C-alpha cells in the first residue's frame, strides 16, 4: 500500500493516522479536512472553551513534538469516492488517488428547518460554532436550549454559570432516557432544576419567532418562550452524502463490520459516521462517543493494512462522560435492554452515587455521578464480562 | 527527598496508593509485581490517576481516557499532551519509599492557576 487517504481530520481521523504510523505504515499519508483547523478536541467546546476558561491552543489534539509525516489537505471537503479510479474527489477540484481509504467524516449538527439565516440561533459541533456561540452568550439575556441531550445540558450548565437566564425544552417526557434509561435520565436531568434552570419536557417546538433575529421559541402547546439566543441541540446526522453511488453501503452512516471494514475492499470507516456491527447485540450501532473515535480506528487500520485478514478484537463497552453544574457524569455500557437499575453506592439526592444496570441479573451498564474511582472499578468489571462472553 | 508511602504488603497488585502531598504523587503496583511512582494528577484536567484504569505499565485517566506510561511518564493518548513526572521507588524493610523528582510538574491549567494563587 503506497498511499492512504484519511478523509476527516478530527479525533477519529487523527487516531487512524497515528495508528497507521504506529503499525509501521511508512507510505504516503494524506489527511483531508473540511474545516481549516488542525485536529482539535470537541468535548471542551460546550464547557471550558464556551466558558472562556481555556483557549484554542488548549484544544489542539496533536502534541508539539508530533510529526506524522502526513500531507494535510484542510479547508476543503470530499465530494466523492471513485472506486474504479480509487480516488477521492475534493470540492476544490483536486483528486487524491489512494490504495487505502479511511472514512472519518463524522456527523453534522441537525438544525431546525426554516430557521436558516435567523441571527441568534446556534448549533454546537465545530470550533467555529463554539466561537459564535461564545460571542452570543457574552451578550447575556435569555437562552432557550432546544433538546435536553448531553450537548444541550452542558451548554445550559455553562450558560447558567455565565449568568444567563436558561430554559431547556425537551420533546421527550424525560431527557436522556435514550442513553441512560428513564429513571436515571430523570435523575441526571434534574440537575437543571436544582440549579434554577427551567426544564420543560414532553413538549415539541413548533418554530422560532423573530424577523432577522430570533426573539422567541414557539411551543406546540401554544406557549411562547421569549429568547435572546437559542441553541438547537437535537442530535447529529452522519456526513456520508459524498459517498452516494460510491459502492460503499450506507445505512445510518457507513455500514461496516466489527473491524470497520466497509463493502469496498481497501476502505474502512471510523468515528461518528461509522455504523459498526456490534457482535454483542448482533446489530449495527452508530456510537457518537469520543472514546469510540479514539479507540476504534486502531482495529480498522489493522484491517486495512492486513487486507481484511485480521480477527477484530473485542472493543471495550462504549464509554462517555459529561460535566454539568460541576458534577461529573460517567457512563459505560448499554442501557437499552437493561431490566433493572440499582443504586449500589451513595445516594441520588447527594449527586454522588454509582448505579448498575442489569439484564437478567448480569451487569450491562454503569452510571456514576462524582464517583470516578468506583466507576473505573465497575467499568473494568463490565469490560471483563463483555470480553469473556 | 525520600517519602514513606505505605507498606508493600498493604498495596496489592493492580492497586495504587496516593500520597497527599502537593502536588499529589501515586505509587502503582502493577499486575506483574512492578512498582512505579508518578504524579497523580492528569496533565489534562484535575483527576486522580490513582482512581484510573491500570493495565500493564499504563494508567488511563478515570475521566477522559488520557493514558500515561508508568515507566516514562509519557502520554500515550489524548486529550492530555504533556507527560507526568516519574519518581524513583525504593523498598526497604517492606516499606515503600518515593524519591521525588526535582523536575517541575506538568499540572493541568486549573491546578496551576490555583497554586499560583489565581482563581481555581
TrEMBL record, chain A:
Species of provenance: Streptomyces camelliae
Cofactor needs: FAD
Protein name from the UniProt record: FAD-dependent oxidoreductase
Keywords noted in UniProt: FAD, Flavoprotein, Oxidoreductase
FAD/NAD(P)-binding domain segment(s): 3-293
Keyword Oxidoreductase carried by entry: yes
Keyword Flavoprotein in annotation: yes
Domain Reductase C-terminal: 319-386
Coiled coil residues, start to end: none
Pfam (any one): Pyr_redox_2
Top-level taxon of origin: Bacteria
From TrEMBL, chain B:
Enzyme Commission numbers on file: 1.14.12.19
Keyword annotations from UniProtKB, A to Z: 2Fe-2S, Dioxygenase, Iron, Iron-sulfur, Metal-binding, Oxidoreductase
InterPro entries: Rieske_2Fe-2S, Rieske_2Fe-2S_sf
PROSITE patterns: RIESKE (PS51296)
Rieske domain location: 3-98
Highest taxon of the lineage: Bacteria
Gene3D superfamilies: Rieske [2Fe-2S] iron-sulphur domain (2.102.10.10)
MF (Gene Ontology): 3-phenylpropionate dioxygenase activity
Protein name: Bifunctional 3-phenylpropionate/cinnamic acid dioxygenase ferredoxin subunit
Amino acid at each position: 500500500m503506497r498511499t492512504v487517504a484519511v478523509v476527516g481530520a478530527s479525533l477519529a481521523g487523527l487516531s487512524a493516522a497515528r495508528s497507521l504510523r504506529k503499525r509501521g505504515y511508512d507510505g504516503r499519508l494524506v489527511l483531508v479536512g473540511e474545516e481549516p483547523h488542525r485536529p482539535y478536541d470537541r468535548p471542551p467546546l460546550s464547557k471550558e472553551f464556551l466558558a472562556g476558561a481555556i483557549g484554542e491552543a488548549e484544544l489542539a489534539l496533536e502534541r508539539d513534538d508530533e510529526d506524522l509525516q502526513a500531507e494535510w489537505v484542510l479547508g476543503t471537503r470530499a465530494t466523492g469516492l471513485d472506486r474504479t479510479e480509487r480516488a477521492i474527489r475534493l470540492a476544490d477540484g483536486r483528486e487524491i488517488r489512494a490504495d487505502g481509504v479511511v472514512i472519518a467524516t463524522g456527523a453534522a449538527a441537525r438544525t431546525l428547518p426554516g430557521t436558516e439565516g435567523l441571527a441568534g440561533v446556534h448549533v454546537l459541533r465545530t470550533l467555529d460554532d463554539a466561537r459564535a456561540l461564545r460571542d452570543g452568550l457574552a451578550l447575556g439575556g435569555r437562552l432557550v436550549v432546544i433538546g435536553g441531550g448531553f450537548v444541550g445540558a452542558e451548554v445550559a450548565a455553562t450558560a447558567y454559570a455565565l449568568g444567563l437566564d436558561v430554559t431547556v425544552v425537551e420533546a421527550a417526557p424525560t431527557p436522556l432516557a435514550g442513553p441512560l434509561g428513564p429513571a436515571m435520565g430523570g435523575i441526571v436531568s434534574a440537575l437543571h432544576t436544582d440549579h434554577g434552570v427551567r426544564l420543560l419536557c414532553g413538549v415539541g417546538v413548533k418554530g422560532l419567532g423573530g424577523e432577522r433575529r430570533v426573539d422567541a421559541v414557539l411551543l406546540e402547546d401554544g406557549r411562547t418562550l421569549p429568547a435572546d439566543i437559542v441553541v438547537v441541540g437535537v442530535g447529529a446526522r452522519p456526513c456520508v452524502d459524498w459517498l452516494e453511488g460510491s459502492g460503499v453501503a450506507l445505512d445510518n452512516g457507513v455500514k461496516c463490520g466489527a473491524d470497520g471494514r466497509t463493502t469496498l475492499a481497501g476502505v474502512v470507516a471510523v468515528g461518528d459516521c461509522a455504523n459498526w456491527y456490534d457482535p454483542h447485540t448482533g446489530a449495527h450501532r452508530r456510537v457518537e462517543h469520543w472514546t469510540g473515535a479514539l479507540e476504534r480506528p486502531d482495529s480498522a487500520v489493522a484491517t486495512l493494512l492486513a487486507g481484511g485478514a485480521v480477527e477484530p478484537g473485542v472493543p471495550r463497552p462504549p464509554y462517555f462522560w459529561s460535566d454539568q453544574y460541576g458534577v461529573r457524569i460517567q457512563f459505560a455500557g448499554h442501557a437499552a435492554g437493561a431490566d433493572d437499575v440499582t443504586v449500589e453506592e451513595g445516594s441520588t439526592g447527594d449527586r454522588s452515587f454509582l448505579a448498575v444496570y442489569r439484564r437478567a441479573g448480569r451487569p450491562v451498564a454503569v452510571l456514576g455521578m462524582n464517583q470516578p474511582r468506583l466507576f473505573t472499578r465497575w467499568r473494568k468489571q463490565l469490560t471483563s464480562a463483555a470480553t469473556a462472553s | 527527598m525520600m517519602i514513606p508511602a505505605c507498606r508493600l504488603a498493604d498495596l496489592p497488585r493492580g492497586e495504587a496508593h496516593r500520597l497527599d502531598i502537593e502536588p499529589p504523587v501515586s505509587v502503582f503496583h502493577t499486575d506483574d509485581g512492578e512498582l512505579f511512582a508518578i504524579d497523580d494528577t492528569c496533565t489534562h484536567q484535575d483527576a486522580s490517576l490513582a482512581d484510573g484504569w491500570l493495565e500493564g505499565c499504563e494508567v488511563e485517566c478515570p475521566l477522559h481516557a488520557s493514558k500515561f506510561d508508568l515507566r516514562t511518564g509519557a502520554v500515550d493518548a489524548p486529550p492530555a499532551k504533556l507527560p507526568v513526572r516519574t519518581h524513583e521507588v525504593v523498598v526497604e524493610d517492606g516499606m515503600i519509599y518515593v524519591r521525588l523528582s526535582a523536575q517541575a510538574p506538568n499540572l493541568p491549567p486549573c491546578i496551576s492557576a490555583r497554586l499560583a494563587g489565581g482563581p481555581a
